[in-house]
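Its record is set out here:
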Amino acid sequence: MKILLTGGVGFVGSNLTPALLKNPLVSELTVLDSLRPTANPEIISSFCNSPKFNFVNGDIRDSELVDNLVRDTDVVINLAGETHVDKSIADSKLFFEVNVLGTHNLLQASLKHGNKRFIHISTDEVWGHSVNGTIFNEQSPYAPRNPYAASKASADHLVRSYGITHAVPFNIVHFTNLYGPWQYPDKLIPKSILRLINERKIQIHGDGKNMRMWLHVEDSVSGVTKVLERGVPGESYALGSHDEKENIEVARLLLEFFGRPTSEIEFVTGRPGNDLRYCVSYDKIHKNLGWEPRVDFQDGLKDEIDWFKKHGDWAGRRR
C-alpha cells in the first residue's frame, strides 16, 4: 500500500516513519511535513536510503499540494498538528488553522480521489479531565477544556462526519500522554530531563497533583500499526497504558535517576484550566486488535534520559 504520512518528522513521526518503512505491507511512504520548530529534519537523511521513502516539505493547509499527494496514495495517516496546550492558550488561531482546516483539506482530497482510507491521530484531551474515578473510553462524551483540545475535538467531529456523510473509511486513534526519543522539550518529561542535565531545577505546575497516564512512543507506533493493519473502518481506538502517575511522582523519579534531592523541584503557577487527571481504557483495541502497551514506565524513562544525554547537540538547539 502507498501511504501519505503527515507530520512524519515530528515526535511521533520520527518513530513511526522507520516502522512503516520496515513494514512489508507498505510499498511507498510519502512524508509531508512543514518542518516547524518541533520537527526533526536531521533524521530525513537516515530514511533516504530506502526506495520506499519520499519527503515533501509542505503544509497540510496547502489544499493544492494536499490534493496532489492524496491522489496518488492509498492511505492517509494524519499526524500533523499543533499540540502544545500553553501555546494554544496564548494564541489559538494557528491550532484551528492546522488541526481543523488542515484536516479538512486532507478529508476533501480523500473524498475527491475515491474515498481514500483515513487514519486520524487524536488525543485523550478531547474528553476533558477525568474526575471521580472516571475512566474514558471511545464512547465517552467530548468535553475539551482548552483551545488545543477543542481544536482536536473539532477535527475528530469533522473526520467522523465525512465517514457518515461521504463514507470516507476512517479510524481515529486517541493517544494518552506520550514520552520517548525525539520529543520536543516543551513537554514535562523531556523539559525536566534537559533541565536536570543542565543543573537546573525541575519546574512543576501548581502542587504537582495533576495526574497523567503515560505511554511510550514505541507503544503508540505499534498501536497505529495495528489500526493500519486490522482497524475496522468507522471505529475509534484509545491507546492508554498501565502507568498513571501524579506529575510530582514523575519529577521525583527523574530526580532519583539523576541522584538529586527532591528540593530541586520548583513549583510554578499552573496553567488556566489545567486538567486534573487523564485516565483512558485500552480495552477495545486490546480485545479487537490484540494491542497492549509493552514498555514499562521506569524502563522507558531511563532510556529517555540516556537518549537525551547522547543527543546533546539536538537537545541544545531546542532549549
